[in-house]
Structures are given as C-alpha cells and as structure tokens.
Amino acid sequence: MNILCVITARGGSKGIPGKNIKDLGGKPLIAYSIEQAKKSKLITHSIVSTDDKEIAEVSKKHGGEVPFMRPSELAEDDTPHLPVMRHAVSFMEEKLGIIFDYIVIFQPTSPFRTVEDIDCTIQKLVDTKANSAVSVCEVETKYHPMKMKKLEGDKVLPYFIPESSTLRQELPKAYKRSSAVYAMDRTHLMEGESLYGDHIVGHIVPANRSIDIDVPFDWTLAEYMLEELKKEGLSF
C-alpha cells in the first residue's frame, strides 16, 4: 500500500499566534506530528502542507518534507480541508508517479497520538473498506450530549430528555473525534463530495491523550497533559 500523510499547518493562527512552531516540552509543536508520521509502520510518505515560510523552515529542520508552498487561496481562515488535501495528493502523485491507496491527515494541534493510534486507525479503514476512519475518545459523563440544554428566552429546556429521568450510570456511552488521526480512502477523497463520506468508522483512543489546541487555555492544558503522560512512561 502507498499511504500519504499530510500534516496541515496553515500560518496566521489568531487564537495562539505562531502556535504550530511554538515550543511545547522542548520542541516545536509541529515536530510531534512529523516524528509520529515517520514512526508509523503503515504510512509510506509524509509531507507538510503550509503557506508559511517559517513553518516550512522549522518543519524541514525537524525532518519534515515540504515539497511545495500551499497556494494562498487554500490558506484562508475558512478554507475547508477537502481542497487542501486534493491539492496535496495531486501534487505528490504527479511528483512521484504513483497513485496512493489511502490518505492520512495529521493536525499539529493534536500532538499526543501514538504509533498504535495511527496504525490501528488506518488498519480499521483498510479492513472495513469504509470511506474514512477517525480516532475517537469517550466523552466524560458531565459533558454527555443528553445533558445539554437550550434556552428559550430565559427558560432552560433539555435538548433530549429531562436530566432527572436518567441516572448518570444509565447514560449510553458517547464519543467525539479526538482530532489525532483522520484516514481516507484515496478514491473517495479525490472523487467524492465530502472529506469523510457516509461510511465512517472509529478507533477509540484514551481521552487523556486527546486534545485540539486552539486557544491559550488549551496550550496550558497540553503542557500539563504532557507532564502527566511522561509520568505514565510515554514519550513524544
């Protein structure tokens, strides 16, 4: 199999300026994703897609391949992932003269994925022949979607059922995307109408390694998480 991992690292972050190259635990944030892609037993090629020269230079310094600078029209605040990925895949297939079987997306803002997270998510996609596979983590009971509320004027109403009618222990398990690994069938990605498709499968990863760094509080949380994960014997 030929499997391409694209690390998407647009410049111009507003929540945390320069976050993709900001130091976390002694190295730039993007270095985590570059190193993890190289450790995977299934990923055969990995690149960084960025529009930012400084991100490109830092990526190269830490072993990342930056074969192109992303066009500015694919680096706007509201640019979706689909055209960004199609551009990267088309460029690399033409450059290498091959057709990839599967495509993987890493976002630098989720630095605590492991090789097992990566390869198990990809393998599940291969085994199930789904359109895509994503890593997911269990939602804490206090954030369970069945406990969410809505406001009608000043009146608090449940979205689903009255909270008092369901014990915490009786709530069904709920999951959210962990943001660590996104894997797609190449044909669907290039020819379908959406990034994920209709048939999506999930690989469960621990919540204590799941984060998507977006605002300063997330960064503080990531620093704490990293220290706790080191105590568990994990290294990143």
Summarize the structure.
This protein has 236 residues and is an alpha/beta fold. Helix content is 31%, strand content 22%.
Can you offer a commentary on this structure?
This protein has one domain (about 5-140, about 175-230): Spore Coat Polysaccharide Biosynthesis Protein SpsA, Chain A (Alpha-Beta Complex). The chain has six helices and ten strands. It has helices spanning about 30-40, 55-60, 80-95, 115-130, 185-190, 215-230, and strands at about 5-10, 25, 25-30, 45-50, 100-105, 130-140, 150, 155-160, 175-185, 200-205. The longest helix has 16 residues, at about 80-95. The radius of gyration is 19 Å and the shape is globular.
Tell me the quaternary state: single chain
Strand composition percent: 15-25%
Q: By helix and strand content, what is the structural category?
A: alpha/beta
Q: Ranges with pLDDT <50 over ≥5 residues?
A: none
What does the main sheet amount to?
6 strands, mixed
User: Judging from the principal axes of the Cα atoms, what is the shape?
Assistant: globular
Taken together, the total number of domains comes to 1
Q: Please identify the top-level CATH class.
A: Alpha Beta
**CATH architecture label:** Alpha-Beta Complex
Q: What is the average of the pLDDT values? A: 94
- Helix and strand element order: EEEHEHHEHEEEEHEH
Distance between the termini: 26 Å
Helix segment count? Answer: 6
What is Rg? 19 Å
Helix content bin: 25-40%
- CATH overall fold name: Spore Coat Polysaccharide Biosynthesis Protein SpsA, Chain A
Strand order of the largest sheet: 4-1-5-9-6-10
Quick one: CATH superfamily?
Answer: Spore Coat Polysaccharide Biosynthesis Protein SpsA, Chain A
DSSP strand count: 10
